[in-house]
Amino acid sequence: MSSYTDRRLIDVYQSTEDISIKSQSLRLLSQRHGTEYLVNGSTICSLLENIRMQASHSSTPDWSVVRLCSALTLKVTDSLAPSITTLLVSGKLVALGLFSGEEEVISKPINPSAIGDKLYRLCQPLEPRETVLQQELILLLGQLSTTRPKLFDGILKLRLGWIVHAMQMTLACDTPGLSVYSLSPSSVDKLLLQLLQYSKTSTPLRPVIWKRDLLGSLGSVPDNFYGRLWYLLERSSKGIQLYDYHLPQQPTLSHLTVEEMSFAVLVEDMLSVVRDPVHRHVVVEVLTVVAVILERNPEVSFENAIIVEKILAQAISLFKAHTKSTESDDKVRVAFYNTPSDVVDGTYSYIAKAVCLQLLDTGISGSDCSFM
């Protein structure tokens, strides 16, 4: 429909009773002319509002259409600011924006209109419905952070686009073809709670890679992860390198303390360069293994930077050799990501061997290196 002329879009709108098609035709017209553009004597805004009411009051509401019409008419709920403040007070940051797109982190209270402006700027051009869905998530997360605070342990930054990704990923497994934008508000509430609960428990009926995707999407890290990263920096004079992001030993250790939220934010900034949730969580596992090795081998330290991607690539290479795989590198990587971490021949064992190889290759202080 994007190639249709204005006249044809208007004809489509008038000739169909399908409210989804009607809303899409009005969306394209509004992108070209704005919502005050007249269609048969009525503004697009008023027509969208009528469709929204029709979709929401139907015996089988079309929530995708409701969200689209709400987004196109720039609706913003007044309760956003108190919910954001609740999350901030509980020690969480909130990142607005689409998955794999630009994000903006909220770290201090702001008014609802400012939140709405950010959401519409970040989400509206590519997926208008998400501007509304993320507003719903802000309200739900604010409520849950008060009623179920333990569910947020290990999560510093709530990346809304990544949470939507986790929801869609789960739906793709459980109900193929169902879009998260089509869920009722109560179903969104239920699914969000389920995902937070899944992150805290074992999920034996789901693939390991699914669990890593979930944990990465939620930004979950193990207990004392930031404390271990501080200790890791103390033992690596050249700091930590993740892609092009360098977390230096100094001035980090001299300007901050391990308890400061600013240090945890620095670590999260480093992790944010990883664009894939599964990969992000494996990076967390790599850093955890490095820290554990240094804790158990106090005589060992890195003389050069800890190059995370080099360790991971080496671990996957060791996994490929041990499993005698003849698959492509991409398929081997997926198989590695789908391998449990803390079992015999699990990912931890390959990462630990790779850490020791990097220590020996790039410079090591100390005489031994053990993980188990």
Report the mean per-residue pLDDT as an integer: 94
Strand order of the largest sheet: 4-3-5
Cα gyration radius (Å): 24 Å
Helix/strand-derived category reads mainly alpha
Please give the alpha-carbon distance between the first and last residues: 60 Å
Mass-distribution shape: elongated
Order of helices and strands: HHEEHHHEEHHEHHHHEEHHHEEHHHE
Report the uncertain regions: none
Number of helices: 17
How many strands appear in the DSSP assignment?
10
Percentage of residues in DSSP E strands: 5-15%
Please summarize the sheet with the most strands: 3 strands, mixed
Share of helical residues? 55-70%
Task: Explain what you see.
The protein is mostly helical. Helices cover 58% and strands 7% of the residues. The strands form 4 sheets. The protein has a 3-stranded mixed sheet. α4 packs across α7 (128-147). The radius of gyration is 24 Å and the shape is elongated.
